[in-house]
Amino acid sequence: MKPIALAGLIAFAAHAADPGAPPAPEVLSSRDMGLLETSPIIALRDGAFSTRVGAASVWVYGDTGLTTPGVDGGTWRHNTLSWTHDLDAFDALTGFADWADASGAPVTFLPLTQDEIATNALHQGDNCQVAPCNYEFGLWPGMPLFDPEHERVLYPYMKLWLGPGAWNFTGVGTGIAVGPAMPGGSIVRPIVDPQSSDPTLLFYEGEPFYVNASVKVRESGTTWVYLYDCSGGDGFTKPMHVARVPIDAILDRSQWRFYAAGGVWSQLATDAIEIFDGSDQLSVHWSDFLGRYVAMYLQPLSQNAVARVADRPEGPWSDPTLMFVALPPVRNGWVYSGTAHGELALDGGRLEYFTYVRDTGPLAQERRIVEVEFKNRVETGDRDADFDPVDGVMLSDVDYPGQICMGMDQHQGRQAAVQFRLGVPHPATITSATVQLVSSGHNQGTYTGTVRAIAQDDVAPFVGGASGSFTATYPMTAAGAAWTPEDAAAGATVTTPELRALVQEVVDRPGWTAGHHLGLVFPEMSVKQKIRCFDDLSAGTGTAAILRLGWYANGTPVCLDARGGEDALRVAREPAGGCGSAGGPSMEFVFGRIGALRASGGAVDLGPVRCADASSTGALVRAADPDQPVGDGSFYLVRASGSPDFGRALLSDGSTPSRIPAASACP
User: Fold this and answer.
1) Residue 173: pLDDT band by 50, 70, 90 thresholds?
2) For the segment 216-225, what is each residue's pLDDT rounded down to a tens digit?
3) CA distances from 483 to 431, 521, 522 (A)
4) Do 226 and 241 meet the contact criterion of CB atoms below 8 Å apart?
5) Which 3 state secondary structure label does DSSP give 263?
6) 353 and 34 in contact (C-beta within 8 Å)?
7) Each residue of 436-453: b (16+ CB within 10 Å) or e?
C-alpha cells in the first residue's frame, strides 16, 4: 500500500508523547548515499524489511515488477526476497543475491496453499471461470525474525485479495511462515488454526494484523517477540498497537497478549490501545548508542523520515524527531516504504541506515539509502550536587537555589559534581564526550578549572551534609580537561571541551559495566568572585545537564602474529591460555574501524597493507575483527617498529598498491 507523498509537507504527529516518555532523539547529520544496488531485471519493488541471519542481511519485499518475464512467463510478484553478505553500509551496500528461478528472475518466496492456487486459477483472465475476473490471493511480507535457538527464520505476512488497478485490495488476515536459517530451502506456512477455513492465519479480516514491524527482546530467560499493528487509521494517521508473544509459542494465538490501558497485557486484541502515531511500514530495534528502542519510519502524507525512542517496546514513546526530508517524487508519484535496517547499524547505533522508495515515473522507481548519525544524550536526572566548606555537600544549593555552581563567590569556593548513568559496556572505545549545561545567568569574573571524573566503577548517589569536598572524598582520574566556560546569559547553552580521555579512563576500569554511573567534578577556585552557575534539575529547576557521548563496543581480544613480516599478518581469536610469543622482529599493530574515519581530502589513506589468514595468499586491504560481522569495516595494520609506513604489500602482479594521500580524522 502506497501512502500519498506531498512534497515539503511537515506533518508531525498530533498524538503527543505520553507523560514519562523520554526526550526525542537528536540527529547530528544525515547523508544521502544514493541508490541501493538493485538487479536490472527489477523495474520496481515495494517494501524493504530486513534482518540479520547468520552472516547475511536478508531482505523481503512486497509487489515486485520485472523488466523481463521469469521462467513462468510472469513479470509480477507479490513478494520477493534477497540477501547480501555485505554488512558494511558505510561505503555502499553491494552483493545482493535474489531468490530467483533458472533465468535469474526473482520468484515469490512465500508459498500459496493448494486451495489458494486453485481459487486464483478460477478467477484468472478476462474470461475467467468464476467472477470477479483477474482477482487473486497474494501475500505481502512484514519484518522477518531470525530465531537461532530453533534454527529458523519467521516471516510474518499479510494475505490479501487483490484486483486490477491501484488500491484495489482487501486484507484477509495475517500469519507467520517458517523457513530455514539461511536463504533458500523450503519455506512453509504452518497450519495454526485447523478448524478455520483459512488455517494458516493467526488474525483475520476485522482484527488488528500485527505485521507492520517486530522486534525481539530477551527478558528473564524468555525471548519475546513484540509485533506492531497500525489498523484503525484514516490514512492521515496510523495509530500503532503492540502485541507480544514468547517466540517459542509465536504460532499459538492463545499465547499472544495485547498492550492495553493501565500497562496491562490483555488476552483480548480488542483491548489494545494506541501507543503512538506511526506508519504502515516502520522498523523497531534496540540502539546501544541511544540506550533505548528506536522506531524509524516515513510519516504518512509527507517526505519526513522521523525517529522516536522508548525505554520499552510498548513505550511510552517520545515525540518524533526529523531525521531528514526524502527527495521529492516525480509528479503524481509517491515516497514510501521507509524503514531502517538495524543489522547494518555501526557503533551500536550511532550510524543507522534507512531506505525508502521514490517514484520516478509511471511504473518506475528507485530505492535510496540514507545514513543517519545520532547524538547520544544522557541526562543527569537527580544525582548532581554542590559543595562548599560551610554547608558541605548540598543536593540543592542553599545560597543559589535551583543552581549548581563552581568557582568561588565573595565568600567561599564551590565545587559542582554531576552523574550520568551510561549504557556503555566494558570494554569499549569512547570516540567523543562533552557535557552541555544551561546557564542560570549568575556569573562573575572568569572561571577556569580542570574537569575530572571520579575514578570509581559505579558512583553512588551523593549524600547531602557530607563535610568532605568531592575532590577530597573521591579518587580522581589522572586525565582531566581544562575548561573556561563563557559568561553566558540565563538559558544559554554552555558546552565543555572534549572529555573523552577521562571518560575512557573510567570505562577502562575492570569493574565498569553498562548501567553504571559516571561522576564528573568541576573544582573550586581560590580567587573570589570567579564563579559560574547552571540549572540544577535535581532541585526541580531548569534543564538537566546532558552528556553527549560517542562510543563503540570493543571486539573479543585477538592475537596478532607477524612473524613472517608485515606482509604476512595473521589474526586469530585469543585462546584460553592467552596469546603466545610471536618472536621475530619487533612489530607495531593498529586496530581501527572504517566507520569511525572521516576523510577531509576526499579519501582516507590507510597505507598499503596485506592481512591474511594461514590459508590465504591474496592481497587484502583490510581484515575483519573475528568478533565483528564480515565487512563491518574493521581492519588491522602492522609495521616494523619505527617504520613510517604500515606494510609493504604487493598486488598479484607484484606491484605496490597506489596511494592517495589525504588527511583523515576521527569525529
Assistant:
1) very high
2) 999 888 999 9
3) 19, 12, 9
4) no
5) helix
6) no
7) bbbbbeebbbebebebbb
* Residues 133 and 127 sit within 8 Å (Cβ to Cβ): yes
pLDDT value at 620 more than 60? no
pLDDT, position 645: 66
Contact at 8 Å (CB) between 406 and 457? no
- The three grid cell numbers given for residue 593, joined into one nine-digit string: 574501524
Name the DSSP letter for residue 62.
Answer: S
* pLDDT classification of 540: cutoffs 50, 70, 90: very low
Supply 74's cell numbers.
Answer: 510472469
Three-state DSSP at 584 gives coil
- Provide the percentage of residues in the chain whose pLDDT is more than 90: 52
pLDDT the model gives residue 624: 35
Can you read off the three cell numbers belonging to residue 78? 507479490
Query: Do the Cβ atoms of 134 and 124 come closer than 8 Å?
Result: yes
Contact 307, 283 (CB under 8 A): no
User: Measured between alpha carbons, how far is 57 from 473 in angstroms, rounded to an integer?
Assistant: 51
> Is the separation of the CB atoms in 265 and 312 below 8 Å?
no
The residue among 175, 154, 117, 139 whose CA lies nearest residue 62 is: 139
Residue 333 confidence (pLDDT): 87
Dump pLDDT digits (tens) for 92-147: 888 899 999 999 999 999 999 999 999 999 999 999 999 999 999 999 999 999 99
Using CA atoms, how far apart are residues 384 and 391, in angstroms rounded to an integer? 16
Q: Using the 8-state DSSP alphabet, how is residue 117 labeled? A: H
Give the integer Cα–Cα distance in Å for 181 and 174: 22
